[in-house]
Amino acid sequence: MNRTDMTTGLVVVLVMALIVSPVCAQSGNLAAAAGDIDITIAGSTTVLPIAEACADAYTGMYPDSQITVSGGGSSYGIAAVANGTVDIGTASRDLKDSEIAAYPDLVTRAIAKDGVAIVVNPANPVAGLTMGQLQDIYTGTITNWQQVGGTDSPIVVVSREDGSGTRDCFEQAVLKPISGVLVGTAVIQNSNDEMRTAVAENASAIGYLSLGYVDSSVSAVSLDGVEPTIEKIKSGDYAISRSLLMITNGAPDADEQAFLDFVLSGCGQCIVVNEGFIPIAPRGDINGDGVIDMDDASYLAKCFFGFPGYCICCTTIGDIDCDGDVDMDDAIWIAKHFYGFPGYETIPTCP
Hints:
Layout: H1 3-20, H2 22-25, H3 30-33, E1 38-43, H4 48-61, E2 66-72, H5 74-82, E3 88-91, H6 97-102, E4 106-120, E5 128-129, H7 131-139, E6 156-160, H8 165-174, E7 187-189, H9 192-200, E8 205-210, E9 219-220, E10 222-223, H10 230-235, E11 241-249, H11 254-264, H12 266-274, E12 278-279, H13 294-304, H14 315-318, H15 328-338
Parallel strand pairs: 1-2, 1-3, 5-10, 6-7, 6-8
Antiparallel strand pairs: 3-11, 4-8, 4-9, 4-11, 4-12
């Protein structure tokens, strides 16, 4: 056996030792802290599908858990967690200065990233707009699709209700830079679902949606030549993006922390991906604790061997070596990265 094989074998032994180590079992990663929990969650309709899917996955592992999830909008979620109506509030925007002043004990945690796509009806031939054109449409300066290369038909502007995090993100990126005011004739919708339906059912409509809600019933247009894709949002090239938040009133208690840990774990971040959003945890940070170390290698190994509470739902998160599956090779890759093996200095980005 050559030296490389011997060293790799030692890494395998170290990973396997971590799996059975009682020290690792108390290390603060997901399964050590998780168990049956009882929490309520409410707020952003953008975060809603992530929260619902994570709640379903968590209760699948811990069937006696009680996790109630609802919407209501970002402003509602922030106020609800602040006044104790819910345990975890969700928001698709940052806290406003007035909310920080009114609720100084709130603790925010980013759980995903998102873009806000500009959408039109699939029958609309307009495939792209400039930021200037979009601003003029939403302030009422441009009123006919013919003015931006479309057919001769009036533009029906659709927007979201006050308190919507998606509306706040849109207005911060589009209207605030020109001190613009939303046109008074805008049709107001109260959720991403309602916005999507309104645009899908009106050939003259324009609206905006969280990227995770874009489907074939609407057409997302480019903005200044940039498509609203995950890659362009990650790179910062697309102009309208935000972090999605989960919020507690003060430091999270044990139940809240267990759920937050799950959302930020490999399984939770794969749910983020599956729902059409962008994971917040960097590749290699499998347990979501902010560092890439042997705990992540251990997590992947325990996932591979089917330990309760350890799961990787997609290759986006767990396929470290980019071979198309999640297995012990990925755990060994992270271990070699942690120990500084030549050629393992950087976690790869899979094509």
